[in-house]
Amino acid sequence: MTVIWLLVGLGLIALGADWLVEGASSIARKAGVSEFVIGLTIVGFGTSCPELVVSLTGAFAGNADIAVGNVIGSNTFNVLFILGLTALLRPVSMTRENRKNDIPLTLSVTVLFLALGLNQTLLGIGTENGLLRWEGALMLLLFGAYYYYLFINL
Protein backbone atom coordinates (compact mmCIF):
# COMPACT_ATOMS: atom_id res chain seq x y z
CA MET A 1 0.00 0.00 0.00
CA THR A 2 2.91 2.34 0.76
CA VAL A 3 4.25 1.91 -2.78
CA ILE A 4 0.85 2.86 -4.21
CA TRP A 5 0.77 6.05 -2.11
CA LEU A 6 4.31 6.85 -3.23
CA LEU A 7 3.34 6.46 -6.89
CA VAL A 8 0.18 8.53 -6.40
CA GLY A 9 2.26 11.23 -4.70
CA LEU A 10 4.84 11.25 -7.50
CA GLY A 11 2.06 11.48 -10.07
CA LEU A 12 0.48 14.41 -8.25
CA ILE A 13 3.85 16.16 -8.00
CA ALA A 14 4.37 15.75 -11.75
CA LEU A 15 0.86 17.04 -12.47
CA GLY A 16 1.32 19.97 -10.11
CA ALA A 17 4.70 20.81 -11.65
CA ASP A 18 3.13 20.82 -15.11
CA TRP A 19 0.35 23.16 -13.93
CA LEU A 20 2.93 25.40 -12.24
CA VAL A 21 5.06 25.72 -15.38
CA GLU A 22 2.07 26.29 -17.67
CA GLY A 23 0.50 28.82 -15.31
CA ALA A 24 3.77 30.66 -14.74
CA SER A 25 4.50 30.83 -18.47
CA SER A 26 1.01 32.15 -19.10
CA ILE A 27 1.44 34.82 -16.42
CA ALA A 28 4.80 35.81 -17.92
CA ARG A 29 3.35 36.22 -21.39
CA LYS A 30 0.35 38.25 -20.18
CA ALA A 31 2.43 40.49 -17.89
CA GLY A 32 5.18 41.00 -20.45
CA VAL A 33 7.73 39.53 -18.05
CA SER A 34 10.50 37.38 -19.42
CA GLU A 35 9.95 33.66 -18.99
CA PHE A 36 13.48 33.47 -17.60
CA VAL A 37 12.50 35.74 -14.69
CA ILE A 38 9.32 33.72 -14.10
CA GLY A 39 11.42 30.54 -14.10
CA LEU A 40 13.77 32.03 -11.52
CA THR A 41 10.97 33.25 -9.30
CA ILE A 42 7.69 31.34 -9.39
CA VAL A 43 9.02 28.04 -10.69
CA GLY A 44 12.25 28.32 -8.69
CA PHE A 45 10.44 29.07 -5.44
CA GLY A 46 7.75 26.48 -6.09
CA THR A 47 10.21 23.67 -6.69
CA SER A 48 12.46 24.75 -3.82
CA CYS A 49 9.78 24.95 -1.12
CA PRO A 50 10.03 21.23 -0.21
CA GLU A 51 13.81 21.61 0.06
CA LEU A 52 13.35 24.63 2.31
CA VAL A 53 11.05 22.67 4.60
CA VAL A 54 13.52 19.77 4.81
CA SER A 55 16.43 22.12 5.51
CA LEU A 56 14.57 24.12 8.17
CA THR A 57 13.30 20.95 9.84
CA GLY A 58 16.82 19.58 9.95
CA ALA A 59 18.27 22.85 11.28
CA PHE A 60 15.66 23.16 14.03
CA ALA A 61 16.29 19.54 15.01
CA GLY A 62 20.01 20.28 15.34
CA ASN A 63 20.98 18.53 12.10
CA ALA A 64 22.41 21.40 10.06
CA ASP A 65 24.25 18.89 7.88
CA ILE A 66 20.87 18.06 6.34
CA ALA A 67 20.58 21.65 5.06
CA VAL A 68 24.10 21.67 3.61
CA GLY A 69 23.65 18.25 2.03
CA ASN A 70 20.29 19.31 0.63
CA VAL A 71 21.76 22.42 -1.02
CA ILE A 72 24.77 20.63 -2.47
CA GLY A 73 22.76 17.59 -3.55
CA SER A 74 20.02 19.67 -5.11
CA ASN A 75 22.43 21.87 -7.06
CA THR A 76 24.42 18.86 -8.25
CA PHE A 77 21.25 17.06 -9.34
CA ASN A 78 19.84 20.16 -11.07
CA VAL A 79 22.98 21.01 -13.01
CA LEU A 80 24.19 17.55 -13.91
CA PHE A 81 21.07 15.40 -14.14
CA ILE A 82 18.19 17.73 -15.02
CA LEU A 83 20.15 19.99 -17.34
CA GLY A 84 21.97 16.99 -18.82
CA LEU A 85 18.76 15.03 -19.44
CA THR A 86 17.06 18.10 -20.89
CA ALA A 87 19.99 18.71 -23.27
CA LEU A 88 19.95 15.04 -24.24
CA LEU A 89 16.29 15.28 -25.24
CA ARG A 90 16.48 18.71 -26.85
CA PRO A 91 19.50 21.02 -27.14
CA VAL A 92 19.48 23.82 -24.58
CA SER A 93 20.44 27.19 -26.01
CA MET A 94 22.53 29.61 -24.01
CA THR A 95 21.65 33.24 -24.57
CA ARG A 96 24.20 36.01 -24.43
CA GLU A 97 22.62 37.09 -21.13
CA ASN A 98 23.08 33.57 -19.69
CA ARG A 99 26.75 33.51 -20.66
CA LYS A 100 27.43 37.08 -19.57
CA ASN A 101 25.53 37.26 -16.27
CA ASP A 102 23.81 34.12 -15.04
CA ILE A 103 26.54 31.50 -15.35
CA PRO A 104 29.26 33.71 -13.80
CA LEU A 105 26.84 34.63 -11.00
CA THR A 106 26.10 30.98 -10.30
CA LEU A 107 29.81 30.20 -10.16
CA SER A 108 30.45 33.24 -7.94
CA VAL A 109 27.73 32.23 -5.49
CA THR A 110 29.23 28.75 -5.29
CA VAL A 111 32.68 30.21 -4.57
CA LEU A 112 31.13 32.52 -1.93
CA PHE A 113 29.45 29.55 -0.26
CA LEU A 114 32.75 27.68 -0.21
CA ALA A 115 34.66 30.68 1.14
CA LEU A 116 32.11 31.37 3.89
CA GLY A 117 31.40 27.77 4.80
CA LEU A 118 35.00 26.60 4.74
CA ASN A 119 36.68 29.80 5.93
CA GLN A 120 38.88 27.95 8.42
CA THR A 121 39.98 25.29 5.96
CA LEU A 122 40.37 27.47 2.86
CA LEU A 123 41.35 30.82 4.30
CA GLY A 124 42.88 29.90 7.65
CA ILE A 125 40.58 32.29 9.53
CA GLY A 126 38.04 31.52 12.21
CA THR A 127 37.92 28.63 14.62
CA GLU A 128 35.78 26.22 12.64
CA ASN A 129 34.03 25.70 9.33
CA GLY A 130 30.40 26.68 9.02
CA LEU A 131 28.09 29.57 8.27
CA LEU A 132 27.56 32.22 10.93
CA ARG A 133 24.40 34.29 11.29
CA TRP A 134 25.95 37.37 9.68
CA GLU A 135 27.04 35.22 6.73
CA GLY A 136 23.50 33.91 6.36
CA ALA A 137 22.23 37.50 6.48
CA LEU A 138 24.79 38.46 3.81
CA MET A 139 23.61 35.62 1.58
CA LEU A 140 19.97 36.66 2.00
CA LEU A 141 20.88 40.28 1.27
CA LEU A 142 22.69 39.23 -1.92
CA PHE A 143 19.69 37.08 -2.87
CA GLY A 144 17.36 40.07 -2.46
CA ALA A 145 19.72 42.33 -4.42
CA TYR A 146 19.89 39.83 -7.28
CA TYR A 147 16.12 39.53 -7.52
CA TYR A 148 15.78 43.31 -7.37
CA TYR A 149 18.29 43.54 -10.23
CA LEU A 150 16.31 40.98 -12.24
CA PHE A 151 13.01 42.79 -11.90
CA ILE A 152 14.52 46.17 -12.71
CA ASN A 153 16.55 45.00 -15.72
CA LEU A 154 14.62 42.16 -17.32
Structural account:
This protein is mainly alpha-helical. The chain is about 85% helix and about 0% strand. The chain has 6 helices and no strands. The model has no long low-confidence stretch (mean pLDDT about 85).
Strand content: under 5%
Return the structural class: mainly alpha
Apparent shape: globular
- Averaged pLDDT: 83
Q: What is the number of beta strands?
A: 0
Query: Residue ranges: pLDDT <50 for 5 or more in a row?
Result: none
Range of helix content: over 70%
Largest sheet composition: none
Tally of DSSP helical segments: 6
Q: Gap between N and C termini, in Å?
A: 48 Å
- Order of helix and strand elements from N to C terminus: HHHHHH
Radius of gyration: 18 Å
Concise structural overview:
The protein is mostly helical. The protein is built from 6 helices and no strands.
Output the keywords.
mainly alpha, 84% helix, globular
Structural topology:
Blueprint lengths: L1 H30 L3 H26 L3 H26 L6 H22 L1 H5 L9 H21 L1
Helix pairs in contact: 1-2, 2-3
